[in-house]
Amino acid sequence: LLSSDICGSISALDEKVSQTQSLVNESTERQKQTKEETMQWIQKNQNTLDITTEVCTKLAEENDALKKAIFNEKNFQKSLTELEKGSSQIKLDISKSYHQLD
Questions:
Q1: Beta carbons within 10 angstroms of residue 29's beta carbon
Q2: Distance (Å, rounded) from C-alpha 67 to C-alpha 73?
Q3: End-to-end CA distance of the chain, in Å?
Q4: Rounded Cα gap, residues 31 and 40, in angstroms
Q5: Distance (Å, rounded) from C-alpha 86 to C-alpha 99?
Q6: What are the per-10-residue average pLDDT scores of the chain (102 residues)?
């Protein structure tokens, strides 16, 4: 009777070991899948990050170009205003000279 109890216990333990090993295998497989999915997610998001960085860099370059264009436009307007003042002064001088001739 005692040896059959021991054999039954050993058989039950073998079953538990087998179940545990099966759970370990499933867990290991899930970890592999999760790792692969995580790597794919990182890769996909790295591409998005690269594209976003490139777009931001181009936008910054365009922003700099616009700032320069605005600066140049302001300088052009300032030069134009000075030129108009100079032209008015020349007209005034010519007018004065013309009236002095009379």
A1: 10
A2: 10
A3: 149
A4: 14
A5: 20
A6: 78 92 96 96 92 96 96 93 91 86 72
